[in-house]
């Protein structure tokens, strides 16, 4: 058992610590735990509100994938831009969104990030660089390449990150976008969150290569596989990819192997995977439990501290739901707003 | 100050507009397949790569979907891309990015973003390129809220409308008939714009209104000139914009002439002619009609290769003359 210590940039002194515990301060690490809880409780809260009929439509929950979203966003600034997916709540929170406005969007209210026009599937926070979740599988990948092209042309030092799932790697847009990013050496990071299934179809049944990262060699870019449930491992790969992108050395493909506890969407009857498989991931590989254990092991937080995080998150979620409930709905007379840019 | 006016081809006018846009705004750049040293499949970009360099006149791989998406992403994040499809038919490969992304991004995000992308589509038949390189798909895109769709018919208009498109905060799709590229006409020097969403009355007349698009404007004018000799006085409206459509100009004209003929190259059914007809039928101009509305559009077939078959597929001047004459003389 390691002795309690403050994480610091002292690689030489503590060579056996995981990357994140060498790279980030104790405060940063505690904030990561806070946000991982915020993602999970947000999604649980959204699911509960959906069950109670407060949210309509559907939603795609990323419960079990929190470390992946957080690890990838660690090296990003508010100016860096991401494109996200239908399973994008975690990315949105990891990039700095306010859960109040996220809940408001899910409730279809004008105070929501998209003023009630987008909902779960198009959640965005442009002020924090989140260009939006996308309802089209692989739809955001070329857009992220375009954002990276703009960054290169404008010389503003921004990097772009495209999150997508394993299903997206079989779309043509994936191939076209990765190829162009490599040809033009653009500052973009492709993050495949491989949770094993594109809706019901496993990667074994849908994808010719064993690892999606293997496809990187076809685009002459590094392909990195990480345990997507291990925050430190994800963050380490993200930091390296962002450094490479900022240095003008081009794109990286990161395959973050993870698992979603819930079904694909609210219509999922869960006939394509076993209860044992799901329980194994939940019991033995939960990203929050794993991270908590590390935080305790390295003396960053104790049980009381963890309890305090949970309580704080619980209150944020409750406040967010109240805010959403109390917010006004859009007026029907504003139905046609935002289709075109209003000319002043 | 007098602005010099020269004769330029339609292709030269587009090239000049893109050069002016790039000179005036560093955010403007061109993307497309073989638009660099090759000069574009129809030589529209020509030698622009020599003037502006390959960073601003970017050759893309043959990746219409990805390329369109890159243009959308760049537009979303501060640039003003002009994306050239080599043929408008290839829009079918990029429909996802055009229809789901470019058109809807602003709306889905509650007005927090704009997508100021311009996409250019060389369109239409008449080049012997057969069914996959000759289509007129403007009505497809015209059906999508969030897009603006234009069909300039003259060198003057294509320059002015392209410059208006570049300045527009929303995605603008420009359909350029390939047979117009070599057509010459007066084009003022320097920067000017022609508004998107405004039709133009190309010829005043009393007896009959023809609403035409793109190359059909020229065919309609030719037919109108021929029928003048028979004492039939035709008004020709160049629609210029498919979305948003300038219905008022059509309605006002039909109230004057009481007869309407729509002429367009795309497949007749479920096309622009139906929308123009409905605009009249749904307005007070309906009460002024002295005869049923007539549409002349493309045949309900893919564009054939054989030149005689190809010509027969889309309205030609004699077809317009015959239809207009019958309509004006009450034979309909």
Automatic annotation (TrEMBL), chain A:
Q: Where is the Dehydrogenase E1 component domain?
A: 35-332
Q: Which UniProt keywords apply?
A: Oxidoreductase, Thiamine pyrophosphate
The family database entries (Pfam families) matched by this protein are listed as: E1_dh
Enumerate the SUPFAM superfamilies for this protein. Thiamin diphosphate-binding fold (THDP-binding)
- Which CDD domains does the entry link to? TPP_E1_PDC_ADC_BCADC (cd02000)
What InterPro entries does the annotation carry?
DH_E1 (IPR001017), PDH_E1_Alpha_Subunit (IPR050642), THDP-binding (IPR029061)
Q: Which cofactor does it need?
A: thiamine diphosphate
Q: Reaction(s) catalyzed by this protein?
A: N(6)-[(R)-lipoyl]-L-lysyl-[protein] + pyruvate + H(+) = N(6)-[(R)-S(8)-acetyldihydrolipoyl]-L-lysyl-[protein] + CO2
Q: Which top-rank group of organisms is this from?
A: Bacteria
Instruction: Tell me the PANTHER family matching this sequence.
Output: PYRUVATE DEHYDROGENASE E1 COMPONENT SUBUNIT ALPHA, PYRUVATE DEHYDROGENASE E1 COMPONENT, ALPHA SUBUNIT BACTERIAL AND ORGANELLAR
Q: Explain the purpose of this protein.
A: The pyruvate dehydrogenase complex catalyzes the overall conversion of pyruvate to acetyl-CoA and CO(2). It contains multiple copies of three enzymatic components: pyruvate dehydrogenase (E1), dihydrolipoamide acetyltransferase (E2) and lipoamide dehydrogenase (E3).
Q: Report the protein name in the record.
A: Thiamine pyrophosphate-dependent dehydrogenase E1 component subunit alpha
TrEMBL record, chain B:
- Cofactor(s) needed by this chain: thiamine diphosphate
Which Pfam family is one of those matched by this entry? Transket_pyr
Enumerate the CDD domains for this protein.
TPP_PYR_E1-PDHc-beta_like
Alphabetical UniProt keywords? Oxidoreductase, Thiamine pyrophosphate
Say which domain of life the source belongs to.
Bacteria
Residue stretches making up the Transketolase-like pyrimidine-binding domain: 8-183
Xref: SMART domains: Transket_pyr (SM00861)
InterPro entries documented for this protein: THDP-binding (IPR029061), Transketo_C/PFOR_II (IPR009014), Transketolase-like_Pyr-bd (IPR005475), Transketolase_C (IPR033248)
According to UniProt, the name of this protein is Alpha-ketoacid dehydrogenase subunit beta
Organism of derivation = Mesorhizobium retamae
């Amino acid at each position: 058992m390691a002795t309690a210590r403050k994480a610091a940039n002292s690689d030489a002194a503590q060579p056996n610590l995981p990357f994140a515990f060498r790279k980030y301060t104790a405060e940063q690490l505690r904030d990561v735990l806070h946000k991982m809880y915020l993602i999970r409780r947000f999604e649980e809260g959204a699911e509960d509100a959906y069950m109670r009929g407060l949210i309509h439509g559907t939603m795609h929950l990323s419960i079990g994938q929190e470390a992946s979203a957080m690890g990838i966003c660690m090296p990003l600034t508010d100016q860096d831009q991401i494109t996200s997916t239908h399973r994008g709540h975690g990315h949105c929170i990891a990039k700095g969104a306010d859960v109040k406005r996220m809940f408001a969007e899910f409730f279809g209210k004008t105070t929501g990030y998209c003023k009630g026009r987008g909902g779960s599937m198009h959640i965005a926070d442009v002020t924090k660089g989140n260009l939006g979740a996308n309802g089209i599988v692989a739809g955001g990948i070329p857009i992220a390449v375009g954002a990276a092209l703009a960054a290169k042309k404008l010389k503003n030092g921004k990097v772009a990150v495209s999150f997508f799932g394993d299903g997206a790697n079989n779309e043509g847009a994936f191939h076209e976008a990765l190829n162009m990013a490599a040809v033009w050496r653009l500052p973009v990071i492709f993050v495949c969150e491989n949770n094993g299934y594109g809706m019901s179809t496993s990667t074994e049944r849908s994808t010719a290569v064993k690892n999606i990262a293997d496809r990187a060699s076809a685009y002459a870019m590094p392909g990195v596989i990480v345990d997507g449930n291990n925050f430190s491992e994800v963050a380490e790969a993200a930091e390296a990819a962002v450094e490479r992108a900022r240095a003008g050395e081009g794109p990286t493909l990161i395959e973050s192997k993870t698992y979603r506890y819930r079904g694909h969407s609210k219509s999922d009857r869960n006939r394509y995977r076993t209860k044992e498989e799901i329980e194994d991931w939940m019991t033995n590989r939960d990203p929050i439990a794993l991270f908590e254990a590390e935080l305790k092991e390295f003396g960053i937080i104790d049980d009381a501290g963890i309890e305090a995080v949970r309580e704080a998150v619980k209150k944020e979620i409750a406040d967010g739901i109240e805010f959403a409930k109390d917010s006004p709905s859009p007026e029907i007379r504003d139905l046609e707003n935002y289709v075109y840019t209003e000319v002043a | 100050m007098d602005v010099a006016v020269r004769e330029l081809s339609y292709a030269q006018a587009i090239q000049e507009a893109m050069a002016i846009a790039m000179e005036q705004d560093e955010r403007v750049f061109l993307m497309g397949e073989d638009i660099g040293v090759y000069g574009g499949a129809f030589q529209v970009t020509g030698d622009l790569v020599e003037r502006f360099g390959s960073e601003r006149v970017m050759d893309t791989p043959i990746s219409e979907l990805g390329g369109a998406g890159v243009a959308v992403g760049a537009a979303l994040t501060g640039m003003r891309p002009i994306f050239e499809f080599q043929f408008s038919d290839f829009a079918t490969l990029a429909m996802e990015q055009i229809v789901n992304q470019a058109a809807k991004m602003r709306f889905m995000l509650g007005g927090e973003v704009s997508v100021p992308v311009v996409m250019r589509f060389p369109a239409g038949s008449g080049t012997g390129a057969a069914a996959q390189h000759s289509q007129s798909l403007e009505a497809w895109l015209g059906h999508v809220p969030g897009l603006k769709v234009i069909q300039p018919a003259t060198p003057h208009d294509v320059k002015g409308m392209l410059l208006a498109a570049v300045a527009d905060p929303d995605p603008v799709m420009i359909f350029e008939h390939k047979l117009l590229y070599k057509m010459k006409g007066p084009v003022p020097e320097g920067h000017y714009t022609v508004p998107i969403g405004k039709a133009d009355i190309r010829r005043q007349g009393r007896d009959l209104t023809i609403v035409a698009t793109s190359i059909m404007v020229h065919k309609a004018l030719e037919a109108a000139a021929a029928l003048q000799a028979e004492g039939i006085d035709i008004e020709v409206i160049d629609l210029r914009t498919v979305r948003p459509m300038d219905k008022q100009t059509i309605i006002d004209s039909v109230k004057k002439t009481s007869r309407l003929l729509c002429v367009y190259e795309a497949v007749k059914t479920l096309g622009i002619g139906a929308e123009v007809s409905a605009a009249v039928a749904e307005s007070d101009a309906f009460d002024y009609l002295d005869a049923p509305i007539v549409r002349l559009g493309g045949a309900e077939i893919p564009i054939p290769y054989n030149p005689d078959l190809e010509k027969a597929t889309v309205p030609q001047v004699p077809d317009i003359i015959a239809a207009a004459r019958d309509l004006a003389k009450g034979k309909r």
